[in-house]
């Protein structure tokens, strides 16, 4: 099944909240303005050119290892203490979503954790869930796509295994935001025929502070 965008009669934030409440996931196109997406895409390109993107690992702590046959992206954590203007715009939009989710669904979301991800052609991420076995802080996962001119046949879909709709494939079209439950939504990144860019992260419950990649919510 190919994902259909959530209805946006009440705006993208309301559509995302409704989708999560109803189905455990939601897909909304044009979550942020095209110029913000372009600025974020340029930011990833600059990080790649300066070798600031590092191979992503799987696991955590002593079990953290590089397994390129499982996960082939390169990442850079976003420093929300010193964001670019485009990163600030995304943080504000995600903050509005956090507040709406807490108001409607009482999820106790407290902070945002995010990184850029670049998948080279042919790379993917095998089926997994986003919540660690010993840490339930991650409540919702989100992916904001930054790709320009993505076409049918380029591949790179996010494949979600949802409770309500079964298998759902989401094309990584620039500006599209996908939100889904971090626990209980197995998913994978399908290999693409071209470079695939995203801003990926989690809305989290309150935990001990981390030095990078998190934006404390403005309560």
List SSEs in N-to-C order.
HEHEEHEEEEEEEEE
Instruction: Tell me the major beta sheet.
Output: 8 strands, antiparallel
| % residues in beta strands | 25-35%
CATH topology type: Jelly Rolls
Structural class assignment:
alpha+beta
CATH superfamily label: q2cbj1_9rhob like domain
The CATH architecture term is Sandwich
SS elements, strand count? 12
End-to-end separation: 38 Å
Mean pLDDT rating: 89
Compact summary:
The chain is α+β, with helices and mostly antiparallel strands and 219 residues long. The chain has three helices and twelve strands. It has helices spanning 12-23, 34-49, 85-105; strands at 25-28, 54-55, 74-77, 109-119, 125-128, 138-145, 158-162, 166-170, 177-181, 187-189, 196-205, 214-216.
Can you lay out the helices and strands and say which pair or pack?
Elements: H1 12-23, E1 25-28, H2 34-49, E2 54-55, E3 74-77, H3 85-105, E4 109-119, E5 125-128, E6 138-145, E7 158-162, E8 166-170, E9 177-181, E10 187-189, E11 196-205, E12 214-216
Antiparallel strand pairs: 1-9, 2-3, 3-4, 4-11, 4-12, 5-10, 6-9, 6-11, 7-8, 7-10
Any overview of this molecule?
The structure is a single chain. With 219 residues, the protein is α+β, with helices and mostly antiparallel strands. The chain has one domain: q2cbj1_9rhob like domain (Jelly Rolls, Sandwich), CATH 2.60.120.620. Helix content is 22%, strand content 29%. The chain is built from three helices and twelve strands. Strand 7 and strand 8 form a beta hairpin. Helix 1 crosses helix 3 and helix 2 packs across helix 3. The longest helix has 21 residues. It is globular, with a radius of gyration of 16 Å.
């Amino acid at each position: 099944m190919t994902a259909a965008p959530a209805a946006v009669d009440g705006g993208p934030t309301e559509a995302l909240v409704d989708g999560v409440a109803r189905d455990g996931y939601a897909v909304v196109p044009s979550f942020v303005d095209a110029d913000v997406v372009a600025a974020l895409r340029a930011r990833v390109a600059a990080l790649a050119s300066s070798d600031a993107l590092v191979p992503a690992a799987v696991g955590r702590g002593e079990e953290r290892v590089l397994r390129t046959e499982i996960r082939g992206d390169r990442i850079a954590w976003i420093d929300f203490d010193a964001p670019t203007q485009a990163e600030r715009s995304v943080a504000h939009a995600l903050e509005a979503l956090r507040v709406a989710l807490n108001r409607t669904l009482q999820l106790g979301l407290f902070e945002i954790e995010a990184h850029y991800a670049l998948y080279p052609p042919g790379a993917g991420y095998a089926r997994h869930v986003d919540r660690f076995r010993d840490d339930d802080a991650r409540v919702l996962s989100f992916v904001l796509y930054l790709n320009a001119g993505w076409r049918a046949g380029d591949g790179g879909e996010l494949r979600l295994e949802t409770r309500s709709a079964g298998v759902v494939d989401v094309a990584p079209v620039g500006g599209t935001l996908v939100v889904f439950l971090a626990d209980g939504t197995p998913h994978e990144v399908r290999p693409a025929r071209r470079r695939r860019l995203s801003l990926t992260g989690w809305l989290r419950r309150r935990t001990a502070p981390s030095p990078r990649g998190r934006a404390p919510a403005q309560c």
